[in-house]
C-alpha cells in the first residue's frame, strides 16, 4: 500500500515508518520538520514537510494514498496553551479524515490515547470505575488533550457513517524506547508509584508500531477502538496487592491475566487485530531500573 504516516519524525512516527517499510509498503512521512536531502538515510521512505492544521496541506499529502496513519499530535496538555493543544490535535485530525473521505482512501488509523478516560490530567481528580481498563470503560475527559482525542474518535465514527472508509483508533499507553526507558520507568521499576494514572502500564514503541501496521492492513469494517499496552506493569509488581494497598476497595478489580498485570486490558487487540507484544521493560532495564549494557 501507499501509506501516509504523519508525525514521522517523532518517536512513534519514526518507528512506524520503519515498520511499514519493513512490511513492504510505500511510505510517505509527513511532519513539521524541514526536509533535508539525506532524510531517507535517517528515516526510510519519502518525506514531505506539512502543517496539517492547514486543510490544503492535508489534502495535498493525502491525495493518492491507500492508507493514512495519523500519529502527529501535541502529546500532552501541559507544554502548550490549552487552545493550541486542542486546535492542533483536533484540526489536523479533521483535515486528514475529511481529505481521506473525499479522496476515497480505504483505511485510516487514528492514534488516540489511554488518557482519553480523563483521569490523567484532571482538574477534578477521579479514579477509574474498574481495572484493568478496557474499551468499554466510560470516558470522562476534562483537559484539552484528552478532549481532542475524544473528538478525534468521534470524527472517525462520523466518517464511517458517511463513506466506505474503515477506521481504527489506537489508544496506546505511555510510549517508551531504548533512549528513555530508564529515565521514564526506572524509578517505577524500583518502587511502584501509587500516583500513576495508568497504574504502571506502558508500551514499547516498536510493539506499538507493529500494532499500527496491523491496523492499516486490517479489513475490519466500521470504526474499531483498541487499547495497546504491554501485558505487564513496569517493575513486574503484584498488581492486585498494590491496588488494594493504595486504594482499598475504591476501584473494582476485574480478573487479571497475570500477577504482574498491566492496568490496561488489551485482549480486544489480541483477538481482533492479531497483535502480540514482543518487548518488555526487562529487555532494557535490570531489576533496579538501571539501563542494561548494550
TrEMBL record:
Transmembrane segments: none annotated. Gene3D superfamilies: NAD(P)-binding Rossmann-like Domain (3.40.50.720). It comes from the Bacteria. Residues 3-182 form the NAD-dependent epimerase/dehydratase domain. It holds the Pfam family Epimerase. This is NAD(P)-dependent oxidoreductase. The lineage of its organism: Bacteria, Bacillati, Actinomycetota, Actinomycetes, Micrococcales.
